[in-house]
Design a protein that fits this description.
InterPro entries: PROP1-like_PPR_dom, TPR-like_helical_dom_sf. This is Proteinaceous RNase P 1, chloroplastic/mitochondrial. Keywords: Repeat. This protein has ten helices and no strands. By secondary structure, the protein is an all-alpha fold. α1 crosses α2, α3 packs antiparallel against α4 and α3 runs parallel beside α5. The longest helix has 16 residues.
């Protein structure tokens, strides 16, 4: 198309994204156009059930940093948090580049609702509050390690634990339910589920009160 002077349109990029996914090379899709089209590719992957891995998320994060799209940077940071337990060196460099930037220093909300932040941390799990960037000013960026006791060598705080997010909790509960239904006590367990759902309904409670 480039040789023939044909300008690629949205359908072209979508088709190329599908081809990239079929080739099991989704990272290629993020090199097909500008930041807007890269996010269109990401949306198409989500709709198609293709889960973006670290290289794709890192590419989107880098595009967002370069494009100064602070909301998208926030989104990509937390998608990395949720799906990548230990980032690669290249991803770490992109993260550092963001936090050392002027955009990162000036983007935060100065007057936030402390109650909403606390509530978000409890609901979100993993320390994520979901309220966006909070506070302004330069970030202190550095690399550190955890010792065998789980103590950070930079701040001296001990890593205690991390909550699983609500989706993981729901998946875990669903897995337990499925496992229980496959056992010999399937009928009893299903009856218990029905009873539990009915007992929690307002109509059942009013009946019991009467």
């Amino acid at each position: 198309m480039g040789v023939d002077g044909i300008e690629p349109n949205e359908a072209t990029f979508t088709s190329a994204a599908r081809l990239a996914c079929a080739m099991e090379d989704p990272e290629m899709a993020f090199n097909l156009g500008d930041a807007n089209r890269a996010y269109e590719v990401d949306a198409h992957m989500v709709e198609s059930g293709v889960v973006a891995e670290e290289p794709e998320l890192c590419a989107l994060l880098g595009l967002s940093v370069e494009s100064r799209w602070v909301d998208q940077v926030y989104e990509m940071m937390h998608r990395l948090r949720a799906s990548v337990r230990q980032v690669s060196e290249s991803t770490a460099e992109v993260v550092e580049r963001w936090f050392n930037s002027e955009d990162a220093a000036g983007v935060g909300e100065e007057n936030w609702d402390v109650g909403k932040v606390r509530e978000g941390i409890v609901k979100g799990g993993g320390g994520w509050h979901g309220q966006g960037w909070l506070g302004k000013g330069k970030w202190k960026v550095g690399r550190t390690e955890m010792d065998e006791a789980g103590v950070c060598q930079s701040c001296g705080e001990k890593f205690v634990g991390i909550d699983i997010d609500p989706r993981e909790t729901e998946n875990f509960a669903s897995s337990l339910t499925k496992l229980a239904c496959q056992r010999e006590v399937k009928a009893d367990f299903v009856q218990f589920q029905v009873w539990h759902q009915l007992s929690a309904s307002p109509k059942f409670l009013r009946f019991m009160e009467n």
